[in-house]
Amino acid sequence: MVKSIGKYFIFLGTLFTNRESFRTYARLFIDESVKIGTDSIILIAIVSVFMGAVTTIQTAYNLVSPLIPDYVVALVVRDMVLLELSPTIIGIIFAGKVGSNIAGELGTMRITEQIDALEVMGLNSASYLVLPKLLATLFTFPMLVIFSAFLSLFGGYIAAEFTGVITPQAYTFGIQNELNEFMVTFAMVKAFVFGFLVATISSFMGYYTTGGALEVGKASTSAVTNSVIAILAADYLLAQLLAQYLVSY
Amino acid sequence: MIEFNNIEKSFGDRQVLKGISAVFKPGLVNMIIGASGTGKSVLLKCLVGLEQPDSGDVLYDQREFTHANRLEKIEIRREIGMLFQGAALFDSKTVEENVRFPMDVLTRMPLDEKLDRVNHVLSRVGLENSNDLMPAELSGGMKKRVGIARALANNSKYLFCDEPNSGLDPQTAILIDNLIKDLTVEYNTTTVVVSHDMNSVMEIGDYIMFMFEGHKVWDGAKEEIIGADEKAFNDFVFANNLMRTLKEQMK
What we know:
- The complex is a heterodimer.
- Chain A is mostly helical.
- Helices cover 86% and strands 0% of the residues of chain A.
- Chain B is of the alpha/beta class.
- Chain B has 9 helices and 10 strands.
- Classes of the chains: A mainly alpha, B alpha/beta.
- At the A-B interface, helix 4 of A face helix 2 and helix 3 of B.
């Protein structure tokens, strides 16, 4: 375990040392950004709409009191979506979709000697293969989180419209009321951290795959499992570190 | 010229290479042969830097490689072309992109020049008009030929081939062997071929090095094989009926 963590940090170091030229990465970065973004956008859209709708309905049923105005439901939904649901749940989905893809791709390249071929050519294979994926993830994942938050709030509106748990007017008023802008910053910090963890952990698992097809499958599974654990641990740490600023903002 | 001295390599308690030295000359097909598990591929990996030997050194035209710093190693590696056992073509790239790849990432050649070079090497390996095919659309022999074209695309001075005709039918295997031989002479590359196929050895081998249990047991020209008296070498070479018959006839 400790050895693996050490190896992971050495791996991170190799991404940034002896890099290839900027020109080499530019095209790869664009390709990876398109791939990573389009790969997961449909799934994230579906999950986000339902996540918002379900959260609205459940919150409405749990806040039934004559003392609590209806719009508070929307306010709670908005805060939950921004602070937790969009970054974390979408992070976990992202790990399952993109993380397993990255690990599978690199694992296959490893066992078919494609990574060795890059090394023999004199390229820093880790940097060449992983850095564009990492940069693309850091670029696209925050956008996916914003997209998810928007669709979740839209999902909540649909639930309000069709179930009548609160009126659409109260919902619209609620999501605009008393917005603490630091929540958006908080969500973006989480998005960057989670994106970094998914991209690097998945790449690490794939890059060091040994064996055959079975091991590529195992590497993909490990990539998802470890990324999810890392996201949850980082979520807790970030909550500890940043929640105080949320209060004082 | 590739020269290596006293190469040793262990994995855990198991010593795979036990002090191997040799000199591989340019313009010749230098073959490393031996049974499976004798350390041929590990030696090849030590020579190209995919494995770091525990001791010993490798020199490329008198330039230290094993203990060189990363930049010096990169400099030498850019003169190396390698054909892997499974060809190791990039799945997501076309034949043309695969062959062009070393030039794309290692040089600043204009696109026209790169395409000319791609078409030249592809025609040289007999794959004209295959530029737009994907690796999945190629047969085993075609993949190997694209692998050779990629290895030579950047004017490599050193060509390494790991079991170049494994998994191929005898006719295609001879075709690949002859291609390696022709290109070695044409481009004056120092070619190193790892194989356990005696047909290949007899077909194209100029200098043959036989490995057994991590040691270099025998080396010489293919004409000297029949007269060799090393038991492990004879057991390996004359394991098949064809070679035994040949030996009888020559006697």
